[in-house]
Amino acid sequence: MKYYELNKNSPYYSYMQNTSVENSLTTEEKDYLYRTQLAGILFGMYEQCHYSEDEKNYAIYAILNKVDSETAFNNMQRADGLSEVDFVAVNNKQIAYHHLVKAGIL
Questions:
Q1: Domains identified in the chain, total number
Q2: What's the mean pLDDT when you consider all of the chain?
Q3: Which domain of life is it from (predicted)?
Q4: 70 within some domain
Q5: E runs forming strands in 1-106
Q6: Residue 36 pLDDT more than 90?
Q7: What is the sign, positive or negative, of the torsion defined by CA atoms of 82, 9, 57, 50?
Q8: Is residue 55 pLDDT above 90, yes or no?
Q9: What CA–CA distance (Å, rounded) separates 101 from 104?
Q10: In a domain, 5, yes or no
Q11: Residue 30 covered by a domain
Q12: Average pLDDT rounded to a whole number, residues 6-33
């Protein structure tokens, strides 16, 4: 089964070259990961999120090749010409916020 299209004109093409993880998976593992990601895409579309075919293909590639979600997200940001997210900084702000809430300051 072919899980995604590799489009040389896609802004994600350069991120989709290493398939070593995908190649090491069994068909059952690939099917499970594909169905999981496809369900996420479909739920997003149900909630009025719009994905291009390239975005859908990259999302499926990313899960099959176990690209961590932060890297995949930032690859998508770069491909769309947007700024990357510093997830460490976001996490640190969240921790600081929870400390303030716990201390009764907020």
A1: 1
A2: 94
A3: Bacteria
A4: yes
A5: none
A6: yes
A7: positive
A8: yes
A9: 5
A10: no
A11: yes
A12: 97
